[in-house]
Amino acid sequence: MDIETVMIAGLDIPPYMQGKLLISKMIADRKSGRVLGFQCIGPGDASKRVATVAMALRGQLTVTDLVNADLPYAPPYSMALDHVITAAQVLENKLLGRMQGISVAEVKQRVDHGADCFIIDTRTPAEFEELRLGIGEVLIPQGALRSRLHELPQDKSKEIIVYCRVSLRGYEVAAILQGHGWNNVKVMEGGIAAWPYSREK
Question: What is the pTM of this model?
Answer without folding.
Answer: 0.93
